[in-house]
Design a protein that fits this description.
This protein has about 500 residues and is of the alpha+beta class. Helices cover about 35% and strands about 30% of the residues. The strands form four sheets. Strands 2-11-15-13-12-16 form a six-stranded antiparallel β-barrel. Strands 3-10-8-5 form a four-stranded antiparallel sheet, with no helix packed on it. Strand 17 and strand 18 form a beta hairpin. The longest helix is centred in the N-terminal third of the chain and has 37 residues.
Length: about 500
């Protein structure tokens, strides 16, 4: 019975061992294939790069005026309609004048009565004044005459004001255009009785709305992530569906400070001013806006995927079979980048301190090789290594100094990241991958402008990120392990060898 069980176990284990060998063979091929596909060499290319912020918006008038009538009554004439272009002072509506004309005539009659009374009191005052001087009348009678004359004179002034107001109200029966523009909405019809806002607590009847459409604006909402890139005075390109092949050029005139929430996303309104002399843009049109922040033509570029940061330079180097010390040696031997325009330190980083030590490249190479070979460094060599690492951490070198945790220098803002900075790449020099420092300009998120550090004939390597390298290593570890029947290999390992369990 035991012989049968042993034979059966050998019959199961032998094919499993063969399967394990096949799995290892296939796994090795898969790992090699994946390593080949993980990176590729691309040439530095010249191209045009544009950095822009895109958003949707609505066409709206810059100036909108609500037209109301100061006079109340029935609308007798309404010569304009929606869409009509009118000059300032053009008749828009005529209100019934009969009541207003009667009020004017009544005010004029009251004024004539007041003037007659004033003349009468004037003559009486003159007569009483002479009698008072002759001491024929008392002072009380004289003062009473003065009061009556003053009252008559005030009635004349009141009458003149009433006449003037009635005249104005009669003139207000003709509603004229307050601006040169277009009637965009008409809210009343001929024969309708309207009320004046002068005597109506409800604000009176709104007749129509007018707008100057020679200039319009686009109100677009920009995500808070991109709002820092938008500045007043920037040129914007506006496209509307009605004129798909005709872009309109505008200018950013205002970035409103108060944010609005749009589907739980914080947005900021941005106003784009547009000339509309031909009247092609109508209020309410949907518009697609592209605000161009920067544009470069015929500049050296590399794919963004080729850029390396201090956080992933070593992980990317491991894909090429380069250890940390080799990468450090390459970066130490790489040419220094020229200072950026405008002086000071490199973009996004402080300038190097005065008196920073200058390192002998040949000596540093010797120190790196000595350390790589496992030889013990002297105290002076250890000090030089520490000084070099500290200096490199301030100019985009390996992490580990300058900030705790080896995070490397921090950028000042997202705008700096959008418009370039200092990075590292792996380039082919003599058919060998070499770590170099480069300075980039603007980027369209696919390609980055190369300001310094590379030549037109260089080839750079597109390598995976640190997360992809870790995933690859985990994949290799899983594939290199034996994959037998679940439980069999585990039991065999616990008992000291395969097939040792019963």
């Amino acid at each position: 019975m035991r012989l049968k069980q042993a034979a059966l176990l050998l019959a199961v284990v032998a094919p499993l061992a063969a399967c394990d060998q096949i799995d290892e063979y296939l796994a090795d091929d898969a790992v090699e294939a994946e390593q080949v596909a993980l990176y590729q060499s691309v040439s530095v290319q010249r191209r045009n790069i544009t950095v822009a912020v895109e958003a949707a918006g609505i066409i709206e008038p810059v100036t909108t005026v609500e037209v109301k009538s100061k006079a109340s009554g029935e609308i007798l004439e309404l010569p304009v309609d929606t869409g009509d272009y009118v000059e300032a002072g053009t008749l828009l509506a005529r209100i019934d004048r009969r009541v207003l004309n009667n009020s004017l005539q009544q005010a004029k009659a009251s004024l004539e009565v007041a003037k007659a009374r004033q003349a009468n009191t004037r003559s009486q005052l003159d007569r009483i004044a002479r009698l008072y001087q002759q001491e024929s009348l008392s002072k009380v009678d004289y003062e009473q005459s003065l009061l009556e004359h003053a009252t008559a004179r005030s009635e004349v002034v009141r009458g003149e004001i009433q006449v003037e107001n009635a005249t104005i109200q009669l003139e207000d029966a003709d509603v004229n255009s307050p601006i040169t523009g277009t009637v965009i909405e008409r809210l009343v019809e001929q024969g309708q009785v309207i009320s004046s806002p002068m005597g109506d607590v409800g604000g009176g009847t709104l007749l129509m709305q007018m707008a100057d459409l020679s200039h319009v604006q686009v109100r677009m909402l920009v995500d808070e992530i991109d709002i820092g890139k938008v500045q007043p005075g920037t040129i914007a390109q506006v496209n509307v569906a009605a004129y798909a092949n005709r872009p309109f050029e505008g200018e950013v005139v205002k970035v409103e400070p108060q944010a609005v929430a749009e589907q739980n996303v914080t947005m900021f309104p941005v106003l784009i001013d547009l000339e509309n002399r031909e009247g092609l843009l109508k209020p309410g049109m949907n518009a697609e806006v592209e605000v161009v922040m920067a544009r470069r033509e015929n500049v050296m570029t590399v794919p963004n995927a080729a850029l390396r940061t201090p956080q992933d330079i070593y992980a990317a180097g491991s894909v090429l079979g380069l250890d940390r010390e080799t990468v450090d040696r390459m970066l130490a031997a790489a040419p220094d980048l020229p200072p950026p325009d405008g002086g000071g330190g490199e973009r996004g980083r402080p300038a190097a301190a005065e008196g920073a030590p200058a390192f002998d490249r040949e000596r540093m190479r010797a120190i790196f090789m000595k350390r790589r070979n496992g030889e013990e460094l002297t105290e002076e060599e250890e000090k030089l290594m520490a000084q070099m690492r500290q200096q490199m951490s301030g100019r985009g070198g390996p992490p580990g100094a300058g900030r705790p945790g080896g995070e490397g220098p921090r950028r000042s803002s997202a705008v700096d990241a959008q418009f370039g900075g200092d990075y590292m790449v792996f380039a082919l020099r003599g058919d060998e991958p070499t770590a170099l420092r480069i300075r980039t300009g603007i980027t369209d998120l696919d390609h980055a402008e190369v300001v310094a550090g590379l030549n037109d004939d260089d080839d750079v390597l597109i390598l995976p990120s640190a997360s992809l390298v870790r995933a690859q290593e985990s994949f290799q570890q899983r594939m290199s392990g034996r994959m037998g029947i679940p439980g069999l290999s585990q039991q065999g390992n616990r008992s000291g060898g395969r097939g040792g369990s019963r």
